[in-house]
Design brief:
457 residues; alpha/beta; Rossmann fold; UDP-N-acetylmuramoyl-L-alanine:D-glutamate ligase; Protein-Tyrosine Phosphatase, Chain A; 3 domains; six-stranded parallel beta sheet; 17 strands
Length: 457
């Protein structure tokens, strides 16, 4: 597919999203199409911010509050939001009428002239993606690429807003979700360089089983392409069970170079230059360094620029310190394994704030880790009962963790203030999505950071 597939056509953008998930697709379509229809089951009031970004485009119209089958029959091209499942019945209508069904990420991969690095996983993918882009962008010259672009699911520059600025000698570093990888599988595309951080159960509300979730993620390797001058590069976390299995599966395939990485690959000098706590963050760094090495950036360059890298917002982010207590915002931890990583990052007493929207994930391992590591657990949201039960099951007569319940995040922060002593850490690491109480994890983390900064010094 090239740009001519869109020029002069009628394009339907399915799924605008409250946070602009379809805005760049609509903006891209408006530049080349004769007519653009944006459809979303949410009404205009809920989508106000996204609609305002497109309001001035003369060839864009909005069909909000429901989907009309006639739109899918008539459009030449349908661009689906990542949240739209591949078997959505409206997409089936478009296919039955011979329409092209694609996606934001599919368009990007089919039109981007640069080398693409793709990073996925259940945990650590955002940090690994940001680290990779940082190391490549700050590597000293000479280097075998011109400019580094950071995009994808990480929430930086939207994919299609940067497409016309990317040159063939650039590198695009993308965080890819399972939803985006499914969309790439539909056009049988994948990054030339692909990395898996780890895989643990997530999004079971969509996939049903862990095996189905893994199958969606595996597309990032299954559809990698190569040529005689540039093999596909596949990087796997050697400390993760699924990644290790995939390394064995793919290592013998011709035209592919498989690279394992582990936290212990990071030498002592580089560890001293790295500010993020815990072994999981060392694993993220090891993966980023392995990608950098595949693009000609070695350890000396990493060591020189690494001290300037800072933690991403909402990922073990130190947001306040008062009365000798450090407050960490880890709102991005929306699964039990990611909260376990956060608990393991500290060797001091921890007061944990956890809980939120129920994605039907198991909490048994988290409950055991809370009993092992946490001084106290303050639970909020839909999953309070499930997490409390997991803590009780893991408790013994010799070891348990006190549990308190809070009806809101401000109440949880006040309880944490009362429980924490000098030298402790208060950790918001919810292990759950935010949709029961907040619009997204960013809003949850921002509120926690603001409340933590108000704690009297």
């Amino acid at each position: 597919m090239d740009l001519s597939a869109f020029v002069g056509k009628e394009i339907l953008v399915m799924g605008l999203g409250r946070f602009g998930g379809g805005v760049d697709a609509a903006q891209f379509a408006a530049k080349v199409a004769t007519r653009v229809v944006v459809t979303d089951i949410a009404g205009g009031d809920r989508l106000r911010d996204s609609v305002e970004q497109l309001r001035e485009l003369p060839n864009v119209e909005f069909h909000l509050g429901s989907h009309d089958p006639a739109d899918f029959k008539r459009a030449d091209v349908v661009v689906a939001n990542p949240a739209v499942a591949p078997d959505n019945p409206y997409l089936d209508i478009a296919r039955r009428h011979g329409r092209v069904v694609t996606s934001q990420v599919g368009i990007f991969f089919q039109l981007c002239p640069a080398r693409i690095v793709g990073i996925t996983g259940a945990n650590g993918k955002s940090t690994t993606t940001a680290l990779t882009a940082y190391l490549l962008a700050n590597a000293p010259s000479p280097r075998p690429f011109r400019k580094v672009w950071l995009s994808g699911n990480i929430g930086q520059q939207p994919l299609l807003t940067i497409l016309d600025r990317i040159a063939s000698d650039d590198v695009a570093v993308l965080e890819l979700s399972s939803f985006q990888i499914e969309q790439l599988a539909q056009v049988q595309r994948a990054p030339r360089i692909s990395l898996l951080t780890n895989l643990t159960p997530n999004h079971l509300d969509r996939y049903g089983t862990f095996d189905a979730y893994c199958a969606a993620k595996e597309g990032i390797f299954r559809y990698q392409r190569h040529d005689d001058d540039a093999p596909a590069v596949s990087l796997f976390n050697a400390e993760d069970e699924v990644a290790s299995q995939w390394f064995t599966r793919y290592r013998e395939q011709p035209g592919r170079r498989c690279v394992p990485f582990r936290a212990d690959d990071v030498d002592a000098q580089i560890r001293r230059a790295y500010r993020l706590p815990g072994r999981a963050y060392l694993s993220n760094l090891a993966g980023a360094m392995a990608i950098a090495a595949s693009l000609g950036v070695g350890k000396d360059a990493v060591r020189a620029c690494l001290p300037g890298f800072k933690a991403l917002p909402h990922r073990l982010e130190l947001v306040a310190e008062a009365r000798g207590v450090r407050w960490y915002n880890d709102s991005k931890a929306t699964t039990p394994p990611s909260a376990i990583v956060a608990l393991e990052a500290f060797d001091c007493p921890e007061v944990l704030i956890a809980g939120g929207y129920d994605k039907h994930l198991p909490f048994d391992e988290l409950g055991a880790k809370i009993v092992e590591k946490a001084k106290a657990a303050i639970l909020i949201g839909q999953t309070t009962g499930k997490i409390a039960e997991a803590i009780h099951r893991a408790s013994t007569t010799d070891q348990t963790t006190p549990i308190q319940f809070a009806a809101s995040l401000p109440e949880a922060v006040e309880l944490a203030r009362q429980l924490a002593a000098p030298g402790d850490v208060v950790l918001l690491s919810p292990a759950c999505a935010s949709y029961d109480m907040f619009e997204n994890y960013q809003q949850r983390g921002a509120q926690f950071a603001e409340l933590a900064r108000r704690v009297p010094a």
